[in-house]
Amino acid sequence: MAFAAHDGTHLACRLVGEGAPLVCLPGGPMQDSRYLADLGGLSAHRQLVLLDPRGTGRSAVPADTTSYRCDRLVGDVEALRVHLGLERVDLLAHSAGANLAALYVQRHPERVGKLALITPSLTAVGIAVTGEDRLSLARRRRGEPWFPVAFAALEAVVAGDGDAESFRAIAPFWYGRWDETAQSLRAAEEGRKNAEAAAAFGADGAFDAEVTRAALAGFTSPVLLLAGELDVNSPPGAVAEYAGLFPHGRVTVQTAAGHFPWLDDAEQFVSVTTSYLR
User: Fold this and answer.
1) What percentage of the chain reaches a pLDDT higher than 90?
2) Domain ranges (residues) in the chain
3) Has this prediction a pTM greater than 0.90?
4) Long-range interactions of 194-197: CB distance < 8 A, separation 24+
């Protein structure tokens, strides 16, 4: 499905499944939506409307590349809602996509029905995760054969000394199981992210955490925030703090899951999300 953004940029979505539409915002930031697949079978319950952010996947590169900034992407989500003909849109956002979802709620609270934030990035709301928080959670994986190399790389990253190889080496921590499936999916992700867009996503002016937090405090619908028990990117404690910003935020921690919980246990992920989305 294709539609035009407010500035004329041609944007694309994949439609997977049948039922009431569920708009899905991928992470990255600025990675195309293919890695979401069918979200572990969630498409059996809802029609997934999987957006390729501008400059990724089948969506066009905009004439103005400053439009990659997160707050400026809000207009793309609103254009999609209008194109779908929906008065209110149900949103599911993963990782960095949660920043965009939060800013959409801030600007258009009356246009949001259900909101599910999956292992959300915390940037838009200014919740900090310390290096020790990440290392402490990572130590729970010390029995894994890949742990020594990955943990040394993570120590370098949290100390600010990580290089490209360090970030590649910590990949096992993103998954509940570093098996062949996870390794293949990780390899397939290489090159899917628009690096220029990712750099612009969080540029100066993109976020005002105080304003966003105030807006979320006035959003009275129930909100699901799903954390992975082993997720060093968005640790459960930080996600629980995020849930507390909403009047009716509910955090669920998926056991033995990393940053991609639908991969680690699709049945558990779909059960939790469909129970909420009903």
Assistant:
1) 94
2) 2-126+193-277
3) yes
4) 194/30, 194/31, 194/53, 194/55, 194/56, 194/68, 196/55, 196/65, 196/68, 197/29, 197/30, 197/53, 197/54, 197/55, 197/56, 197/65, 197/68
Element holding 25 (H helix, E strand): strand 21-25
- HSE of 219, CA atoms in CB hemisphere, 13 A: 29
**Residue 277: Cβ within 10 Å count:** 18
pLDDT in tens, 105-139: 999 999 999 999 999 999 999 999 999 999 999 99
In contact, 158 and 235? CB cutoff 8 Å: no
DSSP SS3 for 171: helix
Domain 2-126+193-277 grouped into CATH 3.40.50.1820: yes
Over residues 173-189, the pLDDT tens digits come to 999 999 999 998 888 87
